[in-house]
Every structure is written in C-alpha cells, then in structure tokens.
Amino acid sequence: MNCGEVGARLVDLLYSELSGDESAAVRGHLERCAECHAAWLELCYLASALDRWSAPAPRGITERVLAKLAIREAEAARTERPGMAMRHLVGFLLAGAGAAVLSLLLLGGGQHEGDTPLKLGVVGAIWTILYGGAGVFLGHHRYRQLALAALIAAGLSVLFAPVLSMPAVIEACRRWLEAAQSSVALNAAIVLAGALYASTPIFLSSAILTRARPTGIVSDALRLAGVYGLLLAPSVYLQCHPLTLSLVAPWVAGMLLGSCVGSIGGVSVASRLRLVSS
Amino acid sequence: MRQDDDLMARARQGDWDALGTLLGLQEGRLVAFFHRLGCDPNSIEDLVQEVMIRIYEARRRYDPARPFSPWLYGIARNVWRDYLRRQGHLQAALRAMESAEDLDSPGLDPLERRQAEEEADRVRRAVQRLPEEQRVTLILRHFQDLSYEEIAETLGVPLGTVKWRIHDAMRKLGQWLTVRRGGGTAR
What we know:
The structure holds 2 protein chains of 2 kinds.
Chain A: H1 3-7, H2 10-14, H3 20-32, H4 34-51, H5 61-79, H6 86-106, H7 117-136, H8 144-165, H9 167-180, H10 184-209, H11 217-240, H12 245-277
Chain B: H1 2-12, H2 16-36, H3 41-58, H4 68-87, H5 89-100, H6 116-128, H7 132-143, H8 148-155, H9 159-177
Helix pairs in contact in B: 1-2, 2-3, 3-4, 4-8, 6-9, 7-9, 8-9
C-alpha cells in the first residue's frame, strides 16, 4: 500500500470503517512512513479538537413529551368508539334486543291484523340494530348526550304508544283520519297532534340532557332529530300498518315535523341554559 | 444501539415503558445533534419534542428488522429541514455553502493555546461553515456515532457519497482549523 492509498484511508481508519486486513495494512504503513504518520496524528488531533465541542446537557424534555403523549393517549381512549370492540358491540346489541322486545310488547305486537311472526321478527331485528347502534354512541364523548337524549325520548314515546295501539283507539283514529281526507282543518289538526306527540319527549330530553355548543345548534339538532326519527320509525309502522298510507300520511308528517322542531327547540334551550349558567 | 432496536420494537407493540426509556436515551443525542447543526438554543427543545412526538406517531410503521438509528436521524433530519424552512434559514445555509469555498484563505491565522470554550467555539463555527449535507454527514458520523452504512440509509444517499462527504469535510476542517499537535487549534 503506497502513501496515496494510505492517505485516502486515514479518515476511514479513524472511524473504524476499514476491514481487519485493510486496517492492519494501513497501520503497518504508518509505522514505517513518517510523513503518513504525521498526517495521521494531525487527523487524530483534529478529531480530539472536534470532541471538545461539547453539547448542552438534556433538560428533562422526555418527561414533558411523555406527559403530552399520555394526555393524547387518554384522549384517544376517550374518543374511541366502544362499539369498535366486539364485546361492547355485542353488549349494545343485546341491550338493543331487550329494548326492542319490550317495545314490541308495549305496542301490542301480535294483537293487530297483519302482525305475522315474520313481520314482527323483521321489525324487532331492525329495532335491535337501531337501539344498539344508538347505544354505541353513548361511548363517544361528543355524541354521548345526543344519543342519550334520543334513546330516552324514543323510550318515552313508546311508553305512550300502548294507548294509541289499542284496537278501539285505532278504530277511532281510522274514522278520524278518513273524515280528515275531505277536511283541511282536520288534516292540520292531525299533523299538529302528530307533531306534539313526537316533539314533546325529544324537546324535554334534549333540553335537559344535551349541552349543545352555541355554534352547533342546527347540526346537533338535526343529528338528534335523525336518530330519534329512526328510533321511532318501527313504532310508527306498528301503529299505522293496519291503515293505508294515504290515511296515515298526515300523522307521519306531523311526527317528522315534531321530531325536527322538538330537537331544535330542546337543543336551543339547552344551549341557552348552558350559556346562562356559565 | 442494539438496546435502542429492542426498545423500539417493544414500543411499536405498545409498550409504554419501553417508549419512555427509548425517548430518554435519545434526548441527549438529539439535543447534541440539533445543537451542532447550529439551531437556535431556544428552539432545540421544541425540535427534540417534535422528533419524539413523530417517533410516537410513526411507531407502528417502524420496521423492527431495520436498525433504529437511521430511522431516528431520518426523522430528526426532516424536523431540522422543516425548522430551516420555517426560520427561513435554508437560504442562509445555501449562502454559507457557497461561501464555504472561500474559507481556506488566510482567515484562520495561527493562535496560541486557547481555553477550551474558545476552541469549542472555533470548532463550532468551522463545522457550521461546512456545506449543509457535509455538515449533517459529519455530525452523524463523528458526534452521533453512526456508521457510514447507517448514514447512507438515514440520508438516502450512496455509501460512496457518505465517504466522500466525510473525507472532504475533514480535509476542510483540517485546513480551516490548522490543527496543531498537543490539541490546540489555530486561527
């Protein structure tokens, strides 16, 4: 190995980047060649000069980062939908199935004309999914209050439903609805009755339970109305299916209207109360 | 460094203690890395925190079959480049790169023995006059103790490029600092 080859390898020798044979060859040359040895010493002195450039000591940054990350982990755990875990999902669906069976019993399922086991099974299954799905959102910090308000309002509506599902009441309603077909005033009264029936529970539950952000009243209210309307749909179907769609249209329209108005009103009141209390 | 690889593999699996230990081990290295890159002392903590948070966020994407150091310094280098962009230092770094070629002129006169702080300051200024890529490469090799191969992986450049950058950087530093036997450096 000549001086040029050794000179080109001195930095690699310094950083232990040469193979064993190369390293031995370079070191052997350095012992014999004064000029290359001097260059090697210069390089070693340069390295030691660089080493004197010290860096500041650590300043407890890790602890502060870990504290931040712990908050993020907790936040992530809090916002994680429990429904994503299979056992939680199964739990909510079982609770939903229980609520669906109870609702079917309260609505007198099976006592009306056309209530076949298949039809009741389908309605029960849909209700299970709806109740269970709403239950999943109870675990979500942002939607928890909306889901709770919708579930309680739907429960209250179903509690009142047995009265409307009694055969005598249905018969009276049928006569009333038939008469309304030729009367605008009666149609309006039915819409109003449907709206009152649907809006009262959702207004009360959302006014008490929700904490809508002042800037999110409309979006929160529409979400609430959507969930509540879906939860009510099976009971409306069970109440109305003995009658024709044209007869029950004003009642259904009133309930849809009531869901929206009740939700907006309740969320607005909750928001106002929250502002006042804060 | 093997310890780092093991800790990172465990942190990737969600081991919080391993993550804490790993970050603790990197803190001093990262502070030194950003310090030697010439970052504003007031920004160094933010930069180190940013690297640590990126490690946490990217931990599931880490390939445990590969060494940890290139991955770490790849993140650190990205954070540094973001910092330069934010600070508008990139142009300054480019200007420094252009002017680096002029530094082997008589600017560095011989000096008598100086105190350690003065020498360190001269070394700092000399290293910071190196072109950006040479400076990062040299810091990774000399101060952060990465091998040529690890540096090549960190910077995404061929091994020969790493070798050339280090050789050239040491040649320039040798000229600028006019190293004298006995440990002193001269102007």
